[in-house]
C-alpha cells in the first residue's frame, strides 16, 4: 500500500499531495511579458508562479494580468509585450503554504484560488497545491468509507 493510501485525509500534509517544483511551469521575474504569455498559452494554464533567479517565490502571473497591461484605448498593443517585464505585472499578494502544513489548511486556501504556492521558511519555491489534487484526496476518502 502506498503512503498516501494508508494515511487518513486529516493526517495528510501539503507536501504529500503538492505538485513538486520541477513539474511546475514558472517564469522568472525579469522575463519579458512576451515570454510569460508564451509559457501561459503553451502550457494551457491561466496562471503560474513567478520566481527570482535563486528560485525564491515572488508571486504569480495570469493571462488576464498581461492582457490588462497591454490593453490600450482601442486595441491590445501587442508590440508592448517585449518592453514590459514580469516584475511590473506580477501579483505579490498571494497566499503561501509550507510542505508541513496540514491538507486541511490547504483546503481552506484553495477555496478562493485554483492553486496555492508552497515555499520553505526562507521563501524557496517547493511546488503548488491545486484544487484538483485536493479533490482527488477528498474523493478517495469518501469512497474508502463506503
Ligand atoms: P488544476 O487544479 O489542475 O486545474 O490546476 C489549477 C491551476 O493550477 C491551473 O490553472 C494552473 O494555473 C495551475 N497549475 C496546475 N498545474 C500546474 C503546473 N504543472 N505548472 C504550473 N501551473 C500549474
Provide structural commentary.
Keywords: CBS domain. Residues 18-78 form the CBS domain. This is CBS domain-containing protein YkuL. The chain has 146 residues and is an alpha/beta fold. It has a single domain, classed as CBS-domain, CATH 3.10.580. Helices cover 32% and strands 19% of the residues. The protein is built from six helices and seven strands; from the N terminus they run H-H-E-E-H-E-E-H-E-H-E-E-H. It has helices at residues 3-6, 14-17, 33-43, 63-69, 103-109, 131-144; strands spanning 19-20, 27-28, 47-51, 57-62, 96-97, 115-119, 125-130. Strand 2 (27-28), helix 3 (33-43) and strand 3 (47-51) form a beta-alpha-beta unit. 24% of the residues are buried. Residues 19, 23-25, 45-48, 114-115, 128, 130-132 line the site of adenosine monophosphate.
Features:
single chain; 146 residues; alpha/beta; CBS-domain; four-stranded mixed β-sheet; 19% strand; elongated; binds adenosine monophosphate; CBS_dom_sf; CBS domain
Task: Predict the CATH topology.
Answer: CBS-domain
Top CATH class: Alpha Beta
Order of helices and strands: HHEEHEEHEHEEH
Average pLDDT reading: 94
List the bound ligands: adenosine monophosphate
Give helix % range: 25-40%
Question: What is the CATH superfamily classification?
Answer: CBS-domain
Helix run count: 6
Adjacency order of strands in the biggest sheet: 1-7-6-5
Looking at how many chains there are and whether they match, the oligomeric state comes to: single chain
Let me know the number of strands. Answer: 7
Helix/strand-derived category reads alpha/beta
Stretches with pLDDT under 50, minimum 5 residues: none
Domain CBS: 18-78
Protein name: CBS domain-containing protein YkuL
Keywords: CBS domain
Pfam families: CBS
Amino acid at each position: 500500500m502506498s503512503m498516501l493510501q494508508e494515511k487518513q485525509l486529516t493526517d495528510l500534509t501539503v507536501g504529500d499531495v503538492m505538485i513538486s517544483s520541477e513539474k511546475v511551469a514558472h517564469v522568472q521575474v525579469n522575463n519579458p511579458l512576451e515570454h510569460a504569455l508564451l509559457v501561459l498559452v503553451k502550457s494551457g494554464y491561466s496562471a503560474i508562479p513567478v520566481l527570482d533567479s535563486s528560485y525564491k517565490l515572488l508571486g504569480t502571473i495570469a493571462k488576464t494580468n498581461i492582457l490588462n497591461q497591454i490593453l490600450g484605448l482601442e486595441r491590445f498593443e501587442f508590440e508592448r509585450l517585449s518592453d514590459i517585464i514580469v516584475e511590473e505585472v506580477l501579483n505579490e499578494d498571494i497566499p503561501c503554504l509550507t510542505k508541513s502544513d496540514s491538507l486541511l489548511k490547504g483546503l481552506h486556501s484553495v477555496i478562493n484560488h485554483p492553486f496555492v504556492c508552497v515555499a520553505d521558511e526562507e521563501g524557496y519555491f517547493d511546488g503548488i497545491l491545486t484544487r484538483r489534487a485536493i479533490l482527488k484526496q477528498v474523493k478517495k476518502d469518501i469512497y474508502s468509507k463506503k
